[in-house]
Amino acid sequence: MSVASLNGRDLLSMADLSADEIQGLLTLAADMKAGKVAPQCKSVKVLGLLFTKASTRTRVSFSVAMYQLGGQVLDLNVSVTQVGRGEPTIDTARVLDRYVDVLAIRTFEQAELDTFASYAEIPVINALTDLEHPCQVLADLQTVQEEFGSLKGRTLTYIGDGNNMANSLLLGCALTGMNVRIAAPAGYEPDAGVVAKAKTIAGDCTEVQVLTDPEAAAKDAHILYTDVWASMGQEQEAADRMKVFQPYQINDHILGLADSEAIVLHCLPAHRGEEITDSVMEGPQSRIWDEAENRMHAQKALLASVLGLGG
Description:
Largest sheet: 5 strands, parallel
Order of helices and strands: HEHEHEHEHEHEHEHEHHEHH
Structural class: alpha/beta
Strand content: 5-15%
Low-confidence stretches: none
Radius of gyration: 19 Å
CATH superfamily of the largest domain: Aspartate/ornithine carbamoyltransferase
Distance between the termini: 5 Å
CATH architecture of the largest domain: 3-Layer(aba) Sandwich
Mean pLDDT: 95
């Protein structure tokens, strides 16, 4: 069982997927989670993890997903490979292409990921760059669908830094017929090119808004979403960002402005007391732990599809 059109394909951006492909992945992930289907590798398949950024959920969820599919995982730690000594990306890509069957890359520059994909024939998956985090958004959409039964017409409000999560949420929501609002301080908006692309995808069917007022953005939203105020690589800016982002915390007041049945999501790790309060994170409307679990199911569906398992 797989989404046949994804066999052999890369996933570098949410925009690489069609609305039907996203829905196919979400259906497959839900069926896997429920134990209705269990595709397996018929021959040994190896997933390579090439991470130059720290990771807990992405590393573990990809590994467990691949093991559950009957495959193997090779952790290509940059500190013990030639990648850490500056081997050119185009050389590494062509060598790993001969060794592994699929590669998940977590790095800083989207351009490095794109270069890798252009020189490797195997599927390359974006496991996070500074521009996008599509695998997280697949798990987010799965969580929303579990809660509400469908995605179309729901409103997701993201409050905080216009980072890679904001970018991928813009695209994912636009593709699936959801309204999306990003509330970020002036100067911290999501990528302008991504915003334009999301608006083009949405057309007249759904709302794509970038605001500076978190209260206006939260009003009647079905999903409130946040992320850390300083991402990996921005640690030097953390103190300055703390002052700017204080009004952009998801707390009981902001939650009270949302729809009465609203849920709260966070991609994790969280800085409790900064972008989200402990009371909201541990409250009855939080679906953060379901969301974290769904990383594994969504990525298992993705791996099964790009490897063509059972499809």
